[in-house]
């Protein structure tokens, strides 16, 4: 295994400490923000490594030697609070004056404290009567890509990796993201609109935690890929089944429930850090 350490900066003192900790004076510089070390002493340094990285705003991960981004055939990611900076339903609810109520339910679902399907139906019902133009306002005024999203997509495409966006949020936003960033596939929930206003109901199947995993496995199988060739990213409990179906799962600013099952977490660097792991 190799140890990948990355942060917004890697000052000389940090590198000196990591050299001492890993017991090797040889390391590869990936770029100005990341380095690769031999992980031969993995079992003996795990606790000290975690403590040091947490104290110095660094992300770290154990990666099989020689693993490259091009070894993967599919990258699949969550959207809200992972690819983008907001939970879309919370911002839509703000247009309806019920953001606090909806956000509270969203938080429970993200932590796995309430069934996602039930939570989604409750939240969507609170949006009844809102004009559909509110969706466009959220997209234009409040939605922003999380740092590194565009750079990550460039790296994935250059490596020949297919890309998929799957969300428990709404198709209005995944469709825009698919066009803007060039995703190969996208799935999300469809809001029912009648006479230009949201009805508070959904159309079609619900994209919940299991549906996310099903999208992954169906696409993987259609592409003729093995499980270890699938890379996924997410932030909440709703992503757990998807992570368990993937070959490698990266949690971005994760909730505790997802942190427990992720292969690594990005708490400090942006989404470009995913490509660095396999650089």
Give the tags.
alpha/beta, 4-stranded antiparallel beta sheet, 12 helices, elongated
Describe the protein in words.
By secondary structure, this protein is α/β, with parallel strands linked by helices. The protein is 42% helix and 23% strand. Helix 8 (171-181) links the parallel strand 6 and strand 7.
Task: Give a summary of the structure in a few sentences.
The protein has 279 residues and is an alpha/beta fold.
Overall morphology: elongated
The Rg value, from CA coordinates, equals 20 Å
Question: Looking across the biggest beta sheet, what order are the strands in?
Answer: 8-7-6-5-9-10-11
**Average pLDDT number:** 94
Q: State the distance separating the first and last CA atoms.
A: 14 Å
Order of helices and strands: EHEEHEEHHHHHEHEEHEHEHEH
Summing up helix and strand content along with how strands pair, one would put the structural category as alpha/beta
Low-confidence stretches: none
Number of strands: 11
Helix content: 40-55%
Classify the beta-strand content into a percent band: 15-25%
* Major pleated sheet: 7 strands, mixed
The quaternary state of the protein chains shown equals single chain
Please work out how many helical segments DSSP would assign.
12
